[in-house]
Amino acid sequence: MTRETASQTAGPYLHIGLLPAAAGLTAAGDEIVAAPVGTVAVGQPIAFRAAIVDGMGAPVTDALVELWQIDGAGHGLWRRSACDGDGHVRFETVRPAALPGQAPHLTLWIVARGIGLPLQTRAYFDDASENNDDPVLARVPAARRKTLMAHRNDDAWTMNIALQGADETVFFNI
Amino acid sequence: MTDVFTGRLTPRADGLHPPPLAPAYRSTALRSPRHAPIRMPSTTTEETGPVFGHDMIAPLDHDLTANFGSGGAIGEQVFVMGHLRDEGGRPIAGALIEVWQANAGGRYRHARDGYLAPLDPGFGGCGRCLTDDAGAYSFRTIRPGAYPWPNGGNDWRPAHIHFSVFGHAFGQRLVTQMYFEGDPHIALCPIVQSIPDPAAIDRLIARLDMGATVPFDARAYRFDITLRGLSATPFGAGA
Known about the structure:
The complex is a heterodimer of chains A (174) and B (239).
Chain A: H1 14-18, E1 26-27, E2 30-31, E3 45-53, E4 64-70, E5 76-82, E6 88-94, E7 105-111, E8 119-125, E9 149-152, E10 157-162, E11 172-173
Chain B: E1 38-39, H1 44-47, E2 77-86, E3 96-100, E4 126-130, E5 136-142, E6 147-149, E7 155-157, E8 160-165, E9 174-180, H2 198-202, E10 205-208, E11 219-222, E12 225-227
Parallel strand pairs in B: 2-11, 2-12, 9-10
Antiparallel strand pairs in B: 2-5, 3-4, 3-8, 6-7, 8-9, 10-11
């Protein structure tokens, strides 16, 4: 069996390849590549915002995050967004339904300079009663489960993602 | 609970990928989690993934020498081509591959790249395509230049092309970099050498393929990509 190709960091210039329009790669007024868009989403519209910080608590301004989830009707939904100058990444999406046996969740895939293998984590909704029975959360030490919880704020569901440090976010090796 | 962990994705092999902390690559110091990631067999979430259609791909997206300016790109003309397969050797068709790279002088068209090499008005530096029914892909581009980067004081990246690859499951998602056969900077690069397995490094090095080279036009380099296996039956359910 040939094993998986080895991972390498996406580096500091990932926007060129992954969000070229936002990176200003236009020529003669034409965008050469537009970021792919997901399917039309069904469900309650929500905004989700994550603040990414490094081991010194400094915002990670050059990360890119991909979101994978189901919508309210169970259809797959994918989004991609880059961090802003405050280290925040924001998605306009819908609240997901619950997959059988799992609590509603968002999968987050994070790449950046200094990250050799993408970091994968989940965001759960802190008001969901299904969280108590979620088998993935059950694998996480109780004291660290809070790092996977998104909280409702005025304008968005929000979550802190600490790559390192006392409140380091839980990441998964799936 | 046993039904949730269907485990259809092959578990990731230990020692194949760069560790979170690779001290010689200094950017990892504050961006590497100190806790080991929580292991779990895959669930439906990781065994499904987005689908991209041909309607998202413009005719010149695969040709980096033509998709930005009208005058062509400066540099050595090359095709970069290969096959996308899973760990069982099965071709992965209809998969989105995105690439980005520096120009022939080693300069990225990016606001944060201030290297002294000039921008090429004919070169943007990104491309994308979908694999065909045999899992094959091909880009036309120019060989990127090596460039210095702030790390150890005198570190130069080997010429490389960044790859982003989707499979059919989100858990197969891969980002990597492709290098060129014979480049002496491969052995000197802290990012390349953060990969513990020399054989895994070797598979990131594209080989000159004279059979696919087009005479009096462009040379071909071959780079095959392997994604994690996705089985119809579980590998390690409940493990």
